[in-house]
Design goal:
With 491 residues, this protein is of the alpha/beta class. It folds into 3 domains: 2-127, no CATH class; 173-326, Rossmann fold, CATH 3.40.50.970; 349-488, Rossmann fold (3-Layer(aba) Sandwich). The chain has 20 helices and 15 strands. Strands 5-4-6-7-9-8-13 form a 7-stranded mixed sheet, with helices on both faces. Strands 10-12-11-14-15 form a 5-stranded mixed sheet, with helices on both faces. Strands 1-3-2 form a 3-stranded parallel sheet, with helices on both faces. β11 (356-361), α16 (365-378) and β12 (384-387) form a beta-alpha-beta unit. The radius of gyration is 29 Å and the shape is elongated.
Length: 491
């Protein structure tokens, strides 16, 4: 879009100023030919400085100096375009100035005043340093790319008793980091793609171990998807690790380059769900809806670390089927010893047996549904809990089985309700004419969610265990005799 806008502005010759803030970084270290070009530009002296110095020198030459200065005016364009920085932008129709010190406030103000008098497109190239002014950020610009508010740590005695438990458990990205390396060791066809975020998506270890099978395409998500399609067509098994919210940029390529071509690209959607302090722009709450409607795409989500590892292997085993795996920015839950049911394409897992009310939970919401079972049981509702595993293909046979002895079906997802997992379930219930008295869909409402701790946002959206319990109790007026969760766990 940047190049499209520059192209448009250069042709229309509008009176505008484009500021290129160039700190030689994106989120991680910048990659690609454009970055290399800007680095070359930064190392060359500004054209204005060269021209001024040359005129000063010529004016000191008696007799011939003035004549040479006049000739200079006729050749400076060719000299400028071939030897000086900014040629790319001049060819697009912009007067180029720079690079100049982007941290010199007084100099910048004067430059802006001067450029206001130029009635045509101008591009001002600023040379800056990422994290300038904050020592910690200057030393580690990748870590400090996004800042959260922080206060001095509370003394240990003031910390909650269970505060350390969550810290000890790894996040989904950490599980993915180890799992993808193991897959790379077992299968030389496995390769990975990142759109300028190897650290955030957990690909640094893979990059170090398999540099020839790791590709950073820069912040170009759509190219990453198209590139992955080409790798798959060539016989490789590309795993494209990308934040859910940024995968939206690649939607055209998902349809035309990947799915229509039946190329088995694995999309690992990190930060799927509510991302906490990252806020409106980073919540990954639309991917089920926009991926589910594309023919040929498989959608799945793990309930814990082991299931993520198995899903990755299942995805790699597909030869002509694109796969999307979504997982949240959260620690991985731990469930008690439950005999796991084999992961098979399109098959859900019944974790707790009950009657009357069936909870069909997807991905990250299996944990919250599990935590709600005890309180429901105390209130006389012995709910069945099913780990959906797949949104597409959906386990319709499981739904038919639940309809035999459950009057209420509850779907839970960390995703918008419109077009999401719950929508897929209600479509299947309608198509199969299944006899549920009530279908209750719990998910994110039709609004943009603000920023804050993930737990608080889940509570705001009614997706924390207490809210899930309350909603089910409000909807179900026919409680059953109480029976504890542990007595109903399938083992």
């Amino acid at each position: 879009m940047t190049f499209e806008a520059l192209n448009h502005g250069g042709v229309n010759r509008q009176n505008m100023l484009v500021i290129l803030n160039d700190n030689d970084m994106s989120i991680n270290k910048a990659v690609g030919a454009l970055s290399a070009y800007l680095t070359k530009v930064r190392t060359k002296p500004a054209y204005q400085d060269i021209k001024r110095d040359l005129r000063t020198a010529l004016s000191r030459i008696p007799v011939v100096g003035k004549h040479i200065e006049e000739v200079l005016g006729e050749v400076h364009d060719r000299f400028r375009d071939n030897l000086l920085p900014g040629t790319l932008f001049r060819e697009l129709g912009y007067r180029y100035y720079g690079p100049v010190d982007g941290h010199d406030l007084g100099g910048l103000i004067q430059t802006f005043e001067d450029l206001k008098n130029i009635q045509e497109p101008v591009l001002l190239h600023l040379d800056t340093k990422k994290g300038q002014g904050f020592e910690a950020a200057e030393a580690d610009p990748i870590k400090y790319h996004a800042l959260k508010g922080f206060l001095p740590k509370k003394p240990e005695k003031d910390a909650p008793e269970n505060a350390g438990d969550a810290k000890k458990r790894p996040g989904y990205s950490a599980i993915f980091k180890e799992a993808i390396v193991e897959l790379g060791l077992k299968d030389s066809r496995v390769c990975t793609i990142t759109a300028g975020m190897p650290d955030g998506t957990g690909l640094l270890k893979f990059a170090e171990q398999f540099p020839d099978r790791y590709f950073d395409v820069g912040i170009c998500e759509q190219h990453g998807a198209g590139f992955g399609s080409g790798l798959a067509f060539g016989g490789l098994r590309p795993v494209y690790a990308v934040y859910s919210t940024f995968c939206q940029r690649a939607y055209d390529q998902v349809i035309h380059d990947v799915c229509i071509q039946e190329n088995s690209v694995v999309f690992c959607l990190d930060r799927a769900g509510l991302t906490g302090e990252d806020g409106w722009t980073h919540h990954g709450v639309f991917d089920i809806a926009f991926m589910r409607c594309v023919p040929g795409m498989v959608l799945m989500a793990p309930r814990d670390a082991e299931e993520l590892e198995v899903m990755l292997q299942l995805a790699i085993d597909q030869t002509t089927t694109p796969v999307t795996i979504r997982y949240p920015k959260a620690t991985v839950p731990e469930f008690p010893s439950i005999i796991r049911q084999e992961l098979r394409l399109g098959k859900a897992e019944r974790m707790v047996e009950g009657e009357g009310v069936a909870i069909f939970a997807y991905g990250s919401m299996v944990e919250n549904a599990w935590q709600a079972l005890d309180e429901l049981s105390k209130n006389g509702i012995n709910a069945t809990l099913v780990n959906a595993r797949f949104t597409k293909p959906l386990d319709v046979e499981m739904l038919k089985s639940l309809a035999e002895n459950h009057h209420t079906l509850v779907t839970i997802e960390e995703h918008v309700l419109m077009g999401g997992f719950g929508s897929a379930v209600t479509e299947a219930v309608t198509d199969e004419n299944l006899d549920f008295t009530r279908v209750l869909r719990l998910g994110i409402p039709d609004e943009f969610i603000t920023f804050g701790p993930r737990g608080q946002l889940l509570e705001d959206c009614g997706l924390d265990p207490s809210s899930i319990t309350r909603r089910i109790l409000e909807e179900c007026s026919e409680p059953q005799p109480s029976k504890g969760r542990e007595d109903r766990v399938l083992s």
